[in-house]
Design a protein that fits this description.
392 residues, globular, 8-stranded mixed sheet, alpha/beta
């Protein structure tokens, strides 16, 4: 699926809903100024002082508008990236007369479930039913209107609730449960927030089919990312298996690497309008989209496991004092540096200098560097890299 092309079909609808009329033309200077100011206020409250997180900001007209025109496309890109990486694990009814069911927790105007629906529509003819759960009726009503305009064949129902009070009983079992940028807003000031969030997800997962997929995405901020990694480890203890992006269902090594370390995905992106103009007006960098995400299945589902020779790239390239470019690799249990001399011809031929976060690589005949306590790998004349780009 061409994610950016799929996103652009929703932009006219977002503009029309924001304006409250059928005008889908580009933002004028007055509108751009208004949205960018609201966006900066929203950003400060969500990623700065975080006072807005969990505060019902979706019921504020200006904040909801900024979310619709800026964060909706960004969230759509994030979940599209994540769900595409899970395509080998998606299971849905074999009969085209059956329905694929999706539960979107903390949905807002539903960019996450829309991204999943767009992918499913490209690979299956099954009917799709989406259940949105959020505390904001305004946000969910907007979601229903977006579905009505852009995906009218999808059946949408809504549940208004305070997530910290739990999910009301539902009779449906779901093929996919998604939580996008919502877990970090729950119990954020509680000392036992990790235990509460893990327990909440365990409860939610009771509504997951035995072959279902649970997808959780959070902002790539240090605190929200590390908190989700801690939740990830608790879920593994409770019997969940990791499908993506981790190569093994093993405690994440980043938590023991130090308090300032984390792990996140990054998508290079030439943003569409109006995201590009809003970002310029607000003086925000939007050349890429970042997030921390994990896809899980239940213990009785058997994921496809990579072989032990595979590594995930989990950092950008870094130039050290000795003039070597270094990436951090993760084999699912430990993080290992892989480096090459800056400009090395064999490294260049193998695509080493073009590696991206979350690419999967196999390293054949590496140079052994470091020691038993601090193992490291290098690129020699005989080294060969086999690269598998991460799904977009």
């Amino acid at each position: 699926m061409n994610v950016e092309k799929s996103l652009t079909k929703h932009i006219p609808t977002l503009l029309s809903l924001w304006r409250g009329n059928k005008n889908t033309s580009p933002l004028n200077s007055r509108e751009l100024s208004s949205v960018s100011q609201a966006l900066l206020s929203l950003q400060r409250g969500l990623t700065g002082n975080r006072k807005l997180a969990g505060s019902g900001y979706m019921d504020n007209k200006d904040h909801l508008g900024a979310y619709l025109l800026y964060y909706w496309p960004v969230s759509y890109m994030q979940i599209s990236y994540a769900i595409n990486s899970c395509t080998p694990f998606l299971q849905y009814p074999e009969s085209s007369d059956s329905t694929v069911t999706i539960l979107d927790i903390g949905s807002g105007p539903a960019p996450a479930s829309m991204a999943i629906c767009d992918l499913l529509s490209s690979i299956t003819t099954n009917q799709i039913e989406v259940t949105l759960v959020d505390s904001s009726t305004k946000a969910m009503e907007l979601a229903k209107r977006i579905y009505g305009d852009d995906n009218p064949n999808v059946k949408v129902r809504t549940i208004k609730t305070d997530l910290q009070q739990g999910l009301p009983p539902v009779s449906t079992k779901f093929d996919i449960i998604v939580m996008s940028h919502s877990i970090n807003e729950l119990w954020k000031d509680k000392a036992d927030k990790i235990e509460r969030r893990s327990g909440f997800i365990n409860h939610i997962a009771e509504n997951l089919k035995s072959t279902g997929l649970l997808l959780i995405s959070e902002p790539a901020l240090l605190e929200t990312s590390r908190s989700l990694i801690q939740v990830r480890d608790e879920l593994i203890k409770n019997g969940f298996s990791i499908l993506s992006p981790c190569l093994k269902s093993h405690p994440c090594p980043v938590l023991s690497s130090g308090p300032n370390h984390t792990c996140h995905a990054e998508i290079q992106w030439n943003p569409c309008e109006p995201v590009a103009s809003i970002a310029r007006s607000a003086k925000l960098d939007r050349e890429s989209v970042k997030m921390t995400f994990f896809a899980f299945c239940k213990a009785d589902s058997v994921p496809i496991q990579p072989d032990n020779a595979s590594y995930r790239v989990v950092s950008d390239g870094m130039l050290n004092k000795s003039g070597r470019i270094r990436y951090l690799l993760c084999d699912g249990e430990k993080r290992i540096p892989l480096s090459a001399k800056n400009g090395d011809s064999n490294a260049r031929q193998n695509g080493f200098f073009n590696l991206q976060r979350y690419d999967t690589i196999k390293v054949q005949s590496p140079e052994i560097r470091g020691d038993s306590n601090n193992p490291a790998l290098g690129i020699s004349d005989n080294t060969k890299l086999v690269l598998i780009p991460f799904s977009k």
